[in-house]
Predict the 3D structure of the following.
Amino acid sequence: MPAARTATITATTTRMGTATIMVMVMITTMRITIMATTTGAAITTMGMAVLPMTPTHKAPTPMTPTPMTPTPMVIIPAIAMLMTLGTRPADAGEAPDGERATLFRLMTWLSPSFPVGSFSYSSGLEWAVEAGDIVDGATLVGWLSAMLSDGSGFCDGVFMAQAHRRTAAGDLAGLAEVAELAAAMVPSRERQLESTAQGRAFVDIALAAWNCEGLADAMAAIGAAPAYPVAVGVTCARHGLALPLSVHAFLHALTANWISAAARLVPLGQTASQRALAALEPVVAATGARAAQASLDDLGGATLRADLASMRHEAQYTRLFRS
């Protein structure tokens, strides 16, 4: 049998996801070989299609090799074959397991249906509505923007972030100090009730349904009546959830709960409520970013009217909420 003759068709590159793939097609009288090498995130892949020489085949007539020019009709099938040999398209829409777990747990723990009783509290909004400070969607956005940036929203975010960091580092003594400060740093008895009652409920449910290694010890360090953001921070850290995403989700849930209370108090329609939440999206993002980087020395607020609202709510003549 004559020696196999080989002709190189082409070598080309294409982008697949985050990897660059070099494709070379070699044609011989014995086989067609497709070779690929990758750089980047993809895995090196080789595919081979063999055309066997059976006894019924006749040996080819020797001929002078003719240079061959690149042709897309050969390259496209080659790339298609490589895509079926272990390479997933970049737009398949599948998140890594870790991201799915993070999303699932944050959506569960910070959902209005998570039984911590968040629907029972208004953070002083009930008095603000009665006093005429909040009368529509625009005044609600202004009030909540201040609470997020310069009031209890930012402070709760800092406490959550600090609890997360100390838990992740295994610093239970430092975690206990954060929990003590968070429970004490409230402007009124009503706000303390709001924070500690939700924190205690969150701890009980987390230990009963979402327990994991080290969670019980961390919960014991923060005491029997921890502030709500501290309890959430500890749980997120023990489950390995990233701090920035955890703080952002916490502040989103806090804001959504405030808007839900205002929708019943003002009242606001569903569309106006969603407009308020959309308007506060950049405020939530900016506050979360600040809180995640802040230290305990950065704690403080400038929302005196909101603090007075939480104090006066206690003696309000008629009330729908506990704070």
